[in-house]
Write a structure and sequence with these properties.
- The chain contains six helices and six strands.
- By secondary structure, it is an alpha/beta fold.
- It has a six-stranded parallel sheet, sandwiched between helices.
- The protein is globular.
- It starts with a strand and ends with a helix.
Amino acid sequence: MNIMLFHSTYGPRPAVRAAADRLRAAGHEVWTPDLFGGRVFETVEEGRIAQEEIGKDELLKRAILAAAPYSERGLVYAGFSLGASIAQTLALGDDKARGLLLLHGTSDIAENASADELPVQLHVAEPDAFETDDWLSAWYLQMQRTGADVEIYRYPGAGHLYTDPDLPDYDAEAAEATWKVALGFLDAL
């Protein structure tokens, strides 16, 4: 598979490169665009300030420009938290998208969005302050209306970005379970 993997609000941290290496070792081609111009942050607050400085439209533009050279190949869009939100937006706008792998995040869905059986897999902590139960229920119903084929995996007790070993949220057991399921998802595409 050809995978476009977007970083979280922390920026292109070592965990993003490690995830890309794990995907490459499983036989996938992976791109990890840097939407923050090389900046990496130690806190969510710092990352959010950078997001606001850059602006939502500019972040989306950078993501589209990063994906455009590869979209004809049929990409799987993937991302961590903020990156998952961006991946979802791009996948729902790309009729050649092969799949959508969301780690720790989702996004609003346009009313006219159509996904025509797009395979979607979401992995989130339970509970997750950024992905509440009410939000996820509404998101799931909206994704179903787009025609997407959605699977959701919840990890009790894990923190929001539980796959990043350098963050306090890290949960080794949940992270390994996530990667096992995610790699199976990608292999099945």
